[in-house]
Specification:
mainly alpha; two-stranded antiparallel sheet; 6 helices; 72% helix
Amino acid sequence: MTTQKPEAKTTPSIVKLIVANGLGIALVFVAAIFVHIRVPIAGAGGMIHLGDLPLFVFALLYGRKTGALAGAFGLTLFDLMAGWTLWAPFTFAIAGAAGWLVGLAGEKNPEGKAGKYAYSIIAANLVTIAGYYAVEGLLYGNWLAPVASVPVNFLQVTVAAVLALPIANRLKKLI
């Protein structure tokens, strides 16, 4: 009686995943660094950037690990390069969690139904809003001022989601 080993990933699929992870991190960083608008609001100020768009696309296409890596590393690099160094460790956790949640939906929804993706986008939005609200409250010792950041974070994630869903569905057919 012979036992079969579980199927291991082939070298081409590992290379493809490494390339997807690297490309995801790079595109998240580039989209955030080149397409961002500072918003003059209370507290630390705020920013709307386009980094969440490639983050969500890569998470939906390649799953939770790629989503977490692209979000955590891509947006942390953005924070470090854009002068938001204090926020980098928090962004690593918050954006990584948001990417993981959206990627989980991509794995659980191979047919690409938008309704199923919507729940993950809502969860990612809640993680982003609650995460940055809590960090700003803790850092600045003021729990009222971070309320001004909530609409900015909501707008950023929602716009990225609305754009990412059709892009990811189109690209899913190609890869």
